[in-house]
């Protein structure tokens, strides 16, 4: 079909054929028949074997992430669940000729499906070394533009080829999240190429513009000879590049550290990964929603994005996790800046459904509630809400709200306390702290004291009792609860006022909690391309001018996309000791001439296994920041004179135990 034909009708027909069965999609899904892919320039190409029957293609977009079609992992019409693949999946990357031994064969460890598109990010069990990931395009393809599609699928003459093939396609239509493609030069997408990349050729190398999704497969081996159509429908990635970037920068040991400085006070709890431990959901400063998974020791690791990376959660004022509709999955109730209360139902695949009104009266301003949290009444199989009213004649009163089977609040509330004295309460959270099967309320009083109000058999609350020996809880702007470590007892969690520390207070099942411990995990190692920021200035460690020369000095500069500010921590044979490698130059951070004196400058030099190029990296006291110390001198990396200026040099100095000496503290 000519690119000047009806683009909308063309794409609609292809989608209709896919639904009606005239078009084969992934499982064994679509593949490419064209020229052999050259060995150089396409090492990022990936072949995925899903179980023992299905195969797909993909592209390496990060050292530990491949993007492909979500339909490769779909079982019937069910959505692809996030997490470990249901079938063992092996991924081959770094060789376009499968008979060769170059590259890497690695098992897939995790799936992160896109909420709206036939796309999934596949996390590999370990990082691929020596293969340059393909760059993800950020501008939309245009009608008439030529793209090169690549895949390992069957051809016109081979059922299971050993080599990747390419074919040239012309963009016939750009419709929302998809591209209609017309084949040229005998190219056709066949079974096995689902998820393969459609590439834009640029002076800087290929860019990933789209992913193979559907095809007519005319001329492919095994296709009915009467089928002559060779068009294809691909899924765009240029307009979801932010989602790709968000996922690939988030490995559990690292991601939390990079996200922590951007966590806002809009946080809630729930078992979002269904592992029996309570997780945290949080809105970040970019308006996105993330989860942090609870671990058996009470610390957390990065979980996953809980919503598409569209920044739409920025206006949320509060989020509350709970099973409001009683289906066993964690939902989120959210209060928005306009005062609306909306419900986002949790689904079996770990995602959230689109929001709906949770309260019938749209004029009610839920943002005016002084406190709001999850609460389950005795005998109920669904969570509801508990609130301190902040307006009206009943200001300061405590009320509980039940839900219907669809998660919406009933129109009536029940007063939970005889008087209206809750106005001065700073924070509340709920949970079964004494293991009697009923929800209790824990509150930070106006004087900073922590008190527990145990739930009684009649559905009310007992008189409050002290849970803590002093009144130091004033500095806790966020108070959360849940079984964070999975031991069957309700714990407390609190975000401190500087938002760089989240404390875990282990519950004993008898109404008390243990002293707090920092629950943000150690943020090592840093993946290739990560940034190292100074806690004092907020600026990034870089090599001056992004130089690739030996002896080029290290300094700080405003964090951006500069090549000289990208680093990788390479573990050595000694635990806790690393080489700090500049990704741009491939050279190692060192102290000049192995000097041990205070003030000796940091610079880069060709890597060798010598003490001045080795660094210990440890948590700085009880904070989430790090001290980076040179093995040769024993002294600590800092910015000279605690400067906050661009260009201030990095140097070593005697370690200071003063936690306020932030120029010696760094975060990843």
Overview of the structural elements:
The protein is mainly beta and 668 residues long. Among the domains are: 13-242, Thrombin, subunit H, CATH 2.40.10; 533-667, Trefoil (Acidic Fibroblast Growth Factor, subunit A) (Trefoil). Helices cover 4% and strands 36% of the residues. It contains 3 helices and 48 strands. The strands form 13 sheets. A 6-stranded antiparallel barrel has the order 10-11-12-16-15-14. A hairpin with a 4-residue loop joins strand 18 (279-284) and strand 19 (289-294).
What is the CATH architecture descriptor of the domain at 13-242?
Beta Barrel
Strand order of the main beta sheet, please? 10-11-12-16-15-14
How many helical stretches?
Answer: 3
Q: What radius of gyration results from the CA coordinates?
A: 28 Å
User: What is the terminal-to-terminal distance?
Assistant: 52 Å
In the CATH hierarchy, what is the class of the domain at 13-242? Mainly Beta
CATH topology of the domain at 13-242: Thrombin, subunit H
The coarse silhouette is: globular
**Portion in strands:** 35-45%
């Amino acid at each position: 079909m000519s690119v000047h034909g009806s683009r909308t009708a063309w794409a609609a027909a292809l989608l209709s054929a896919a639904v009606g069965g005239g078009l084969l999609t992934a499982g064994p899904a679509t593949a490419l028949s064209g020229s052999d892919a050259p060995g150089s320039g396409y090492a990022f190409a990936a072949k995925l074997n899903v179980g023992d029957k299905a195969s797909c293609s993909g592209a390496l977009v990060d050292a530990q992430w491949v993007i492909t079609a979500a339909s490769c992992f779909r079982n019937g019409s069910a959505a692809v669940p996030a997490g470990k693949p249901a079938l063992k999946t092996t991924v081959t990357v770094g060789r376009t000729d499968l008979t060769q031994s170059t590259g890497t064969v690695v098992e897939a460890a995790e799936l992160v499906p896109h909420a709206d598109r036939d796309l999934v990010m596949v996390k590999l069990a370990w990082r691929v070394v020596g293969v340059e990931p393909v760059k993800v395009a950020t501008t939309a393809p245009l009608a008439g533009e030529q793209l090169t599609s690549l895949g390992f699928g069957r051809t016109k003459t081979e059922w299971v080829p050993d080599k990747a093939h390419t074919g040239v396609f012309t963009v016939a239509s750009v419709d929302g999240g998809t591209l209609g493609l017309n084949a040229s030069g005998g190219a056709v997408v066949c079974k096995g190429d689902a998820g393969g990349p459609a590439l834009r050729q640029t002076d800087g190398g290929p860019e990933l513009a789209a992913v193979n999704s559907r095809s007519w497969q005319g001329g492919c081996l095994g296709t009915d000879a009467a089928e002559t159509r060779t068009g294809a429908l691909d899924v765009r990635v240029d307009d979801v590049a932010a989602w790709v970037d968000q996922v690939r920068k988030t490995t559990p040991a690292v991601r939390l550290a990079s996200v922590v400085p951007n966590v806002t006070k809009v946080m809630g709890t729930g078992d979002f990964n269904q592992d029996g431990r309570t997780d945290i959901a949080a809105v970040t400063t970019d308006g996105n929603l993330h989860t942090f998974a609870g671990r058996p020791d009470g610390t957390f690791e990065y979980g996953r994005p809980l919503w598409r990376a569209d920044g739409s959660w920025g206006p949320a004022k509060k989020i509350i996790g709970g099973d409001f509709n009683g289906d066993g999955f964690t939902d989120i109730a959210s209060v928005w800046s306009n005062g609306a209360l909306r419900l986002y139902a949790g689904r079996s695949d770990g995602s959230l459904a689109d929001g709906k009104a949770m309260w019938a009266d749209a004029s009610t301003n839920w943002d005016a509630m002084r406190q709001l949290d999850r609460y389950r009444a005795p005998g109920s199989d669904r969570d509801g809400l508990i609130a301190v009213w902040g307006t009206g004649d009943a200001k300061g009163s405590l009320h509980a709200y039940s839900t219907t089977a669809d998660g919406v609040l009933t129109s009536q509330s029940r007063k939970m306390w005889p008087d209206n004295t809750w106005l001065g309460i700073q924070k509340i959270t709920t949970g079964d702290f004494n293991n009697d099967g009923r929800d209790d309320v824990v509150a930070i009083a106006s004087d900073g004291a922590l008190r527990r109000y145990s739930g009684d058999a009649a559905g009310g609350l007992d008189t409050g009792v002290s849970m803590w020996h002093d009144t130091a809880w004033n500095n806790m702007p966020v108070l959360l609860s849940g079984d964070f470590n999975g031991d069957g007892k309700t714990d407390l969690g609190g975000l401190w006022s500087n938002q760089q520390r989240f404390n875990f207070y282990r519950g004993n099942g008898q109404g008390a909690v243990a002293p707090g411990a920092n629950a943000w995990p150690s943020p090592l190692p840093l993946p290739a391309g990560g940034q190292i920021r100074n806690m004092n200035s907020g600026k990034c460690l870089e090599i001056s001018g992004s130089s690739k020369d030996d002896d080029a000095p290290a300094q700080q500069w405003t964090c951006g996309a500069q090549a000289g500010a990208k680093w990788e921590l390479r573990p050595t044979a000694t635990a806790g000791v690393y080489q700090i490698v500049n990704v741009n130059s491939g050279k190692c951070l060192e102290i000049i001439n192995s000097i041990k004196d205070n003030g000796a400058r940091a610079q880069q030099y060709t890597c060798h296994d010598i003490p001045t190029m080795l660094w210990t990296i440890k948590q700085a006291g009880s904070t989430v920041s790090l001290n980076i110390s040179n093995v040769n001198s024993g002294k600590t990396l800092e910015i000279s004179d605690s400067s906050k200026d661009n260009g201030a040099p990095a140097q070593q100095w005697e370690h200071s135990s003063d936690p306020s000496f932030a120029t010696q503290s760094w975060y990843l």
